[in-house]
Design brief:
By secondary structure, the chain is an alpha/beta fold. The protein folds into two domains: 42 residues, no CATH class; 275 residues, 3-Layer(aba) Sandwich (Rossmann fold). The protein is 35% helix and 21% strand. It contains eleven helices and twelve strands. Strands 1, 2, 3, 4, 7, 8, 9, 10, 11 and 12 form a ten-stranded mixed beta sheet that branches. Strands 5-6 form a two-stranded antiparallel ribbon. Helix 4 crosses helix 5, helix 5 runs parallel beside helix 7 and helix 9 crosses helix 11. The chain is globular, with a radius of gyration of 19 Å.
């Protein structure tokens, strides 16, 4: 269901590299990977997509308001009420979505899991965000993700497709026709990107808080891996830099981390309910780096400085990893 972007020759070469074994095979694979990544990092001449990331900033990012918090933490029983109260704390939905906007909502719908297993975003959180965007006058609200398991099963079993559709969203499966090849920041080179991300007026990131075996955690910034198709395994060669490159490109209007259920172990896929803690919390804000840092510290007691992607993002000016320094508000309902 994902984008079929490899030419037959390149696909054959990649498969050949993957099958190489032993020390000699590893050396050959590493050399081949270096050549491949070098080719990917070259920017085609006169590519009109090169300036896309810069063009998103005035459309999607809001000017800071010193009278409003940058990070809001809300705890309570009702996931929908948590969405409403978290946005109220940030200034209200009208600060983020206006009449006529096309809004992309990017949850995590990566896995063929139920809501109780906490591998995907809570469907009620997504549905309430759709409702609020439409209430604010959005012309269209799109919900999409690039799943790791079969997309139709993921979208259905997560409960997100049904819940979002019921509130009037257009639910977009990651079919080939929904991708457009774009040059991404850093050394990522050219990748197929979900076209709704490229055309939306506003982008709302709604990841779920999870443990991750490779990066330690997967929160708001890593959720952007779900905007690209193609051989995403290559992003893991330098996963921390890849995460930051994608976050710099995506430029969300607002981020809401779903911590209603937190997958504290055996992420990102999970499966066992014993790995899930019910925290009944949402973390919302306009500083994606501070949000990730807060969640990592709160749920895994991780020093944000130990997460390399946060250090890279902070150094690039994408946010403040010292979340204690940002304006914040905590609410218990």
């Amino acid at each position: 269901m994902g984008a079929k972007t490899d030419l037959p020759g390149r696909r054959h070469a990649l498969l050949k590299l993957a099958r190489l074994g032993g020390l000699g095979g590893l050396g050959a694979a590493t050399a081949g990977l270096g050549v491949w990544l070098s080719a990917r990092s070259k920017q085609p001449e006169e590519n009109p997509e090169e300036s896309l990331a810069a063009s998103f900033e005035p459309r999607r990012n809001l000017p800071p308001d010193p009278n409003l918090p940058e990070l809001v933490v809300v705890q309570g029983e009702d996931p929908r009420l948590l969405v409403r109260r978290s946005l109220e704390g940030l200034g209200g939905i009208g600060r983020f979505v206006v009449q006529g906007d096309v809004v992309l909502i990017k949850p995590n719908i990566a896995w063929d899991r139920t809501p109780e297993q906490a591998a995907n975003t809570n469907p009620q959180v997504v549905a309430e965000m759709v409702r609020l965007c439409r209430e604010a006058g959005a012309r269209k609200v799109i919900v999409t993700d690039v799943s790791c398991n079969d997309p139709r099963r993921c979208f259905r079993r997560s409960g997100i497709a049904e819940a979002a559709s019921a509130e009037g969203a257009e639910v977009v499966l990651p079919e080939d026709r929904h991708f457009k090849r774009v040059n991404l920041p850093g050394n990522l080179g050219s990748w197929p990107v979900l076209e709704p991300l490229l055309t939306a007026d506003k982008v709302i990131n709604i990841p779920v808080a999870k443990h991750h075996s490779l990066t330690g955690v997967t929160l708001g910034m890593k959720n952007w891996i779900g905007i690209v198709g193609g051989p995403r395994v290559w992003l893991h060669q330098d996963i921390h830099t890849s995460v930051v490159d994608l976050a710099e490109f995506a430029r969300p209007t607002v981020t809401i981390i779903d911590a209603y259920r937190v997958l504290v172990r055996n992420g990102p896929t999970g499966g066992s309910l014993s790995d899930v803690e019910v925290r009944k919390t949402l973390i919302a804000g306009t500083d994606p780096v501070a949000l990730d840092a807060y969640a990592a510290k709160t749920y895994w007691n991780l020093d944000p400085r130990s997460l390399r992607y946060l250090k890279i993002a902070s150094d690039r000016g994408l946010g403040n990893m010292n979340f204690e320094q940002v304006r914040s508000q905590k609410v218990t309902l």
